[in-house]
Amino acid sequence: MRWLMIFAVAVGHRPCPSRSGASVPAAYADVVARARTLVCERLAPRVPGLQVAVAVDGRLVWSEAFGYADLERRRPVSRETQFRIGSVSKPLTAAAVAQLYEQGELDLDAPVQRYVASFPAKRYPITTRELAGHLAGIRHYRDQEFLLNRHFAGVVDGLSIFEDDSLLFPPGTKFSYSSYGWNLVSAVVEGASGEGFLPYMSEHVFRPLGMTHTAPDRVDSVVPHRTQFYDRDSTGHFTIAPPVDNSYKWAGGGFLSTAEDLVKFGSALLAEGFLKAETLTLLFTTQRTSAGEPTGYGIGWFVGSDSLGHRRVFHGGGSVGGTAAFGVDRDSRVVVAILTNLTEAPLDSGSGIPALFDRPAAVAPEPQATGYRVVRRYPLGGEGGWDYLTLDPATRRLFVSRGTRVAVIDADSGRVVGEIPNTPGVHGVALAPDLGRGATSNGRDQSVTIFDLRSLAALGTVRVTGGNPDAIVYEPVTHRVFTFNGAGQNATAIDVSAGAVVGTVALGGKPEFAVATGDGRIYANIENTAELVVLDARALAVTARWPLAPCADPTGLALDAAHSRLFVGCSNRLMAVVDGASGRVLTTLPIGAGVDGTAFDPGTGLAFSSNGEGSVTVVREVTPDSFSVVDTVATQRGARTVALDPRTHALFLATAEFGPAPAVTPEQPRPRPAIVPGSFVILVVGR
Asked: What is the per-residue pLDDT for 2?
């Protein structure tokens, strides 16, 4: 699109010349205005020029260039202006390491001499994993090496700067940041791939991701969009930075890039695709010293969490004449890059930009087409977590799983009307109104509690035939309750009248949620294989298995029985709509992050996904083969499970307030934040 020069006014009436890049989606207009004000007030006046780019869920929502790439010639920064990104080069190189690891070409735990035979052996062996996590004992810059202006023909030649130096400590015992360690990583990439490092990066990382403005900072080549580079002198004036030759440290700090290219790169790492899911976990999990202490650094990335408990990975970059800030929020799926052409530029003020773009609190959703909103809140308090919600439309009772008990409330008033106690690790409740009974799936106890639907009195306990019974449904044709057992990877069929197990069905994977059709069939999501299975409740057999790709880790499941359409909530922020007769995925639609439940309202033709990020995505079934997202409703963080009221067309969701999340560990790569005591609440979303 055509670039438009915009002049804004910052504090003190200082000009803030800028060029807007990609068009701003209407939903982000207000937040972009706030972010632009932040940049004009706190960042732009302190640097010659900079770029800012933000992507949300892989979509570029803001790109703007401020100030000048060349002050003397008054050449403005544009979206194509290339900046030195310094150590942000390390995450880029980490992608090459990850690819070679996936292909079996690189053993992260082999001595580096397997790939770089010329590197001198040290007193202790060094591995690529240790190099990539700053645990190898390789030193960092010293004296004037940061200002080196000597050309090196290749990455192996650049190792001569430090290769004969002793290690600072035995590898693995300490974290000590080292760009030179990444110089050695680039030589490992060459040895493992059989290609030169720079050609490999261009062919296998930059080109596939469309990073057309990312390249080595070659001093012997004309780079048309490369910025001028600046220092600040003792009087505060900008001066031309001294010349340097970064050919000795491509991998650790030698690339040029743009903010837009970097958010493309970060967006490609939000989900499986460019790299496998397990490889992303490898990159983004903190390494540990040999004593077990977390370092806060994975492979090429600093890792941590913010005040909301979101998993963040990030890296800064400092160069002669360049400063970069780059971060990825893996839960809100916000990617931010800020680049400037000044040595040691003060970019700390930009740290507030990611929070501005974090849905749903910071940015209004698309104009609401349905009128749904949070209309009531039922504060219940009490200890314990929660899981599924189940509504009995006839009695207007809402069953709420609360860890060791089931709270029963009046759906219209929020008043607690009863409780089903002694349900250890309860996940869900199934209702058999024709039998006057209900059943709970007790995950911690591997049991089902059968209770009287009117009095709520317990009638008996049945042991299931698989570990961790999770989802539970009543199948009316056979009058059986089925539990779907995550650890057992099977389903248990129970005669609730007799209080006895009548059979077990192997499911071939970990079941997550299930729905009964009313004609003797049950559909169930298989989370770890991304499949949908069809179970014959009479024969106790699986009759079909359907792949759900591109849906990953399916969770919630809802049914439009009249048209045989299934709505699957997928952990990669998609809703898959499936033909219940053929198993064909008809379409996928974008939804919010952290889905756990879905629902379908036959009275309105609307399907819903409840998203833990704090939103409900509303999908309209235009025809049985045509669907569209028509609304995003702000709810509250943690509201992941849902029950639909077919009479009022309202939704019930459960959540609470949260404290900070514990530190990430290999044992707990996604630790859950603590629940604020007494904050548990039921949200009613209606019109």
From this structure: 25
